[in-house]
Fold this sequence. Notes:
heterodimer; B: alpha/beta; 4-stranded antiparallel beta sheet; 8 helices; 12 strands
Amino acid sequence: MADNTPAGSTTDGxxxxxxxxxxxxxxxxxxxxxxxxxFPVPHGREEEWRFTPLERLRGLHDGTAVAGGAGVKVEVSxxxxxxxxTVGRDxxxxxxxGAPVDRVAAQAYSSFEKASVVSxxxxxxxxxxxxxxxxxxxxxxxxxxxxxxxxxxxxxVVLDHTGDATLAANVEYLIGDGAKLTVVSVQDWDATAxxxxxxxxxxxxxxSFKSVIxxxxxxxxxxxxxxxxxxxxxxxELYGLYFTDEGQHQEHRLFVDHDTPHCxxxxxxxxxxxxxxxxxxxxxxxxxxxxxxxxxxxxxxRNLVLTDGARVDSVPNLEIETGEIAGxxxxxxxxxFDDEQLFYLxxxxxxxxxxxxxxxxxxxxxxxxQIGIPELEERLIAKIEAELEASVA
Amino acid sequence: MATxxxxxxxxxxxxxxxxxxxLRGVDLTVKQxxxxxxxxxxxxxxxxxxxxxxxxxxxxxxxxxxTLDGEDVLAMSVDERARAGVFLAMQYPVEVxxxxxxxxxxxxxxxxxxxxxxxRTWVKEVKEAMERLNMDPAFAERNVNEGFSGGEKKRHEILxxxxxxxxxxxxxxxxxxxxxxxxxxxxxxxxxxxETGEVGTLLITHYTRILRYIEPDFVHVFSGGRIVESGGxxxxxxxxxxxxxxYQTKGA
Lengths: 393, 252
């Protein structure tokens, strides 16, 4: 499908290996700050904003968005043994995974009033997921969520975004030594919602972090998952799935900061697009710093363009400052829906809409299986099929 | 008795400088139980005939008729043709990532038969058909044509032929790229289907080699987009000895 890149799309990539010249270094040395005043208002030319339609951010980027209206309703349901708290800005547990790295995330950090902290005590293995429902009720809101997993604890957290909102938020994951955390963040917003969020994970010694980002809805959704390692032996798997429809802007910007030896990361994002001005952006930045010997990393992005008029920008970047690594690689490909696949299936009697469904299901199948929560897998498949029905109709 | 009738078929493809005519008046009748070999040099339009009959969107029919038992095949969509009983075993079967062979076969059989086959008998049916073609059972869990060797792809095509039981089977260079063992097994599969007497076979090939395993009732020489000579099996022997040279000037 690589020779089948739709017009107007980019599938760039770069691998930088050490040395004096590091033209993309600015990405990684970007400032980090909790204070919005440390970030100038973006104008669209900046590397981290060049794909984002700023005018559709409803002022989240320039200080004109003010919390108000019905806002969002956050509800946490957690199995026994989990502590759920609402805390003030001065709580010591906030901000430990890392600081905001762009103006909108810093705006969220500077503007939220109450944060939610979910704590899973050490050595607690949850049999049920923690469910965090973020229900947009039409207003502007700034959110902060912390999920803290104690040493050797195991948990699954499902963050579910629905309704309509203009929301800027930070989510922090603190994963203790030997702990395992799976987080599924579903952006199933109404078509009018605007959502920008930074998800920062601090992965402890020998800990495992699995993130699954699923984006279906919204007018503009911009998610920025970041991983940093606190100690050696950490493992991060970052999966994503998006279905971008007519007029939607869905942007996923990943950053994995390998600054610690013997850590692993694996990134796989897949998206389907359909309709006029559907725009998906995927940025995959992986930095292997000089100290991070024994790093093993791979990142992949695949896009399936189902109709004309959709646009994908897919930009993997791998920067390597040490040769003493186990492995590093990336792949990115964007292709049109393959008419030959359609012909093959139809030539076996399978009607067109069913053939399309088979191909798109197949495209996402591997990724959906990675989630490991059957109920959620079924919901996602149903959602993908509903999106397809809309396109066939 | 099922009959495929092709009359004065003209087909074009879109080329850089406008449409280019590839088929220039093909006449052919294939009846259930018969095997017709279509032989011709590269570029003579053999594969275009195969894909046009199956309804590939790349080919535009500009004239003529194709009917199956009187029904207008050209008016049918690709899937309708398959359900009407036309099967094309492709020269280059297409990879479908993420779709398992078993899911594909069952979806296809459900579409062709008009109802989902009963699971128990279906599993047995597939297993036995795979054994006959010397295919590893693990094959069913692989993705359609993904990473298949040339021989595996062709076996998979013939597996579908056996399971879908079409009225008319078009085999487009099924012999190409096969070693002798694979050719024999694939041919045996075709012969099992032929022996039911319920399929009319259109065997498209460049080489006479496969005709040692699958004996045709009729041989047609294809050149310049049409049939230039027809005869019995003995015509294949003539081609084996003399090649296509005599036809190439005539057809162009």
